[in-house]
Amino acid sequence: MLLTALLKGFTIGFLIAAPVGPIGILCIRRTLVQGRSIGFISGLGAATADAVYGCIAGLGLTLIMNYLVEQSSRFQLFGGIFLCYLGLRTLFSSPPDRAHGR
Question: Distance from CA of residue 91 to its chain's centroid?
Fold first, then answer.
C-alpha cells in the first residue's frame, strides 16, 4: 500500500513538473479525446521532432565551429589589421575641444 502511494505520488509529481506548452496541450487533448495510445504516439512524435531539431542544431554548430577553427589565421589577420586601423585613426585624430567641457 505504501509503495503504491509512493508510485502514484512520483507519477503525479512527474506529470505536474512536465512543461505544458502547445505540444503538451495537444498530447493531453488527444489522450483525453482519443485514448492513451494515441496520446502516447503523439508524445513520441513530438519527442522525435525535438530530437531531430536538436541534432540539426548540434551538427550545424559543429560545422560552423570547424569552419571558424580552420579559418582562424585569416580572422586573426583581419582582426589585427582592423585594430591597427583603429589605432592609427585614433593617433592621427585631432583632440576634442576643451572649451565645452570646462
Answer: 42
Q: How many residues does the chain have?
A: 102
Residue 23: exposure state from Cβ atoms within 10 A (0-12, 13-18, ≥19): middle
Which 8-state DSSP code applies to residue 20?
-
pTM: 0.48
From CA 14, how far away is CA 44, in angstroms rounded? 17
What pLDDT, on a 0 to 100 scale, did the predictor assign at position 61? 84
> How many other CB atoms sit within 10 Å of the CB of residue 27?
22
Distance CA 62, CA 68 (A): 10
The three cell numbers locating residue 74: 585569416
